[in-house]
Design a protein that fits this description.
Aminopeptidase, alpha+beta, single chain
Length: 205
């Protein structure tokens, strides 16, 4: 795509990463958080945590004519969310003490539909494209970048998980990913109106 560049994020990209990661939550994030507003507050806050797995340090961006239009968070050294004082403060500020108890119940349902990520896989944790720029090849370009990174590092498998309702599944399938596992849960569906989540993988020959 002419004018499209993919590069490592820098600290000044943080606000735009936050917009793309948390600014337009879908049914899953809104259902787990309890509302769209809470999903936005928590998602954008997670990006701004200095050492969190969603920070600029772990993000690659797609830039079109100087504007950040997509983000990718991926790698073989996946970083789990650690409970830190900043994360606790963010959760309290977003949900309140009683709200956190409700959130934990929803998170348990979310964990039940999360397929196990294969050991030794280069995992794509997050891909987001600005809605105004979708269906223009940006998502495919980010997937291509991730695959090149995985091959260069010697990985033989790329993985991702996605909700069963995510239309981006077609993009992943066009780029060689296939569904290898699906997990569903009635409580998760009650909160999100989504059946569950898929694990998709692509073998690198």
């Amino acid at each position: 795509m002419e004018g499209l560049a993919i590069r490592k994020a820098i600290v000044s990209d943080t606000d735009r990463i936050a917009e793309l990661f948390g600014g337009d939550p879908g049914e899953e994030a809104s259902g787990i958080a309890g509302s769209r507003d809470k999903a936005i507050a928590f998602g954008t806050g997670m990006v701004r945590l200095p050492d969190g797995p969603q920070s600029w340090r772990h993000t690659v961006i797609a830039e079109l004519d100087g504007r950040v239009v997509g983000i990718l968070m991926a790698g073989g050294d996946r970083k789990d969310v650690r409970v830190t004082p900043r994360l606790v403060y963010l959760a309290l500020a977003t949900f309140g003490p009683l709200g956190i108890l409700r959130l934990l119940t929803r998170l348990r349902a979310r964990v039940r539909v999360q397929p196990k990520i294969p050991n030794g896989a280069f995992h794509l944790a997050e891909i987001d494209v600005d809605p105004a720029y979708r269906n223009q090849g940006i998502g495919g370009a980010l997937l291509g970048y991730a695959e090149a990174e995985a091959r260069a590092a010697g990985y033989r498998l790329i993985s991702l998980t996605t909700s069963t309702a995510n239309p981006a599944r077609r993009l992943y399938e066009r780029n060689g990913f296939r569904i290898v596992a699906t997990k569903t849960d009635p409580a998760y569906k009650r909160y999100t109106r989504i059946d569950g989540r898929h694990l998709m993988v692509k073998e690198l020959g």
